[in-house]
Design a protein that fits this description.
With 326 residues, this protein is of the alpha+beta class. It folds into two domains: 1-29; 32-325, no CATH class. Helix content is 23%, strand content 29%. The chain is built from seven helices and 22 strands. The chain has helices spanning 3-26, 41-50, 58-61, 64-77, 141-147, 202-207, 271-280, and strands spanning 30-31, 88-89, 98-106, 109-117, 124-128, 134-135, 139-140, 152-155, 167-169, 172-175, 183-187, 192-195, 210-215, 219-222, 225-226, 243-250, 253-259, 285-288, 297-299, 302-303, 318-319, 321-325. The strands form six sheets. Strands 2-3-4-17-16-18-14-15 form an eight-stranded antiparallel β-sheet, with helices on one face. The protein is globular.
Length: 326
Amino acid sequence: MKPKQWLTAYALALTAFTTYVAFDTFVIPEAYAKDATEINLEMIREETNTSEHKTETALTEINKETASEVSEEIVTGISAENSSKVSVETDNNTDSPSITVSTYRVNNTNLYVADIILPSVEYLKTAFAEDTYGRKITATTSDTAAGHNAILAINGDYYGARERGYVIRNGVLYRNTPSEEDVLCIYADGHAEIINPSEISAEELIEQGVWQAFSFGPGLIENGEISVDLNDEVGHAMASNPRTAIGLIDTNHFVFVVSDGRTDESEGLSLYELAEFMKGLGVTTAYNLDGGGSSTMVYQGEVINNPTTNGKNTKERSVSDIVYIG
């Protein structure tokens, strides 16, 4: 074969290979097999009932009046110039979750906060897009939420975009390969911790009763103190972004926070600003989930924030997983 023919053949082969890699990385869905390790659901119920941190009267005490008082204290605590609140609550039955959804205006940014008190951590669930654990299998947060009759949902950590990072969902271990990022662990007794995956295996976490584990980060608040610096950011992302985060105030008392961003109406937050806001809510442990165009909150079947990737249009991004109450 002549040199010119060799070059042509090589160029065609290289183009074909590059095209395949691109499709394999970004387009072709791939379902994974899960690890068989699974937490015992009976243990969750037992630990929830016996935990010394159990908030026995919290569900009966919260109502619209106290929710309003707490929200006003929070607004004062974070020194928001222009803060507003719109609250909606679920039924205050002690056998069901109590959810208060509020909106805030802080640092030229719209934030949506769901204050959640659960009778058991089992109500804090996760779901995969198309109910399939795998790579590049995605759906919008609202579609996945609708498929699971979720009362409230936010996007998760987009585990499917990465090959590493612990994945424990609803007490089942799906991926035990650690990444460099710290992991948020929510335990069977309703408390949460941020752990270093180099110090403990995923199998050990299951043995300790971890119900959900997310690998994105960074951690925003640990032991009641802000754990990010003013200049910390996720990779090469912009300083002000749409954000999604989950936080713990007390045992089985969680908050979901989503902020809009990248628009004239809503600038977005830095990680430090997000942490500062959540500390003002009384959060003792907080963790950053996938943000940017992924940031979405769905309440009672409706998207209540304004998801955007480029700021030019409002549209949900398809993601690999959600966190929901149901």
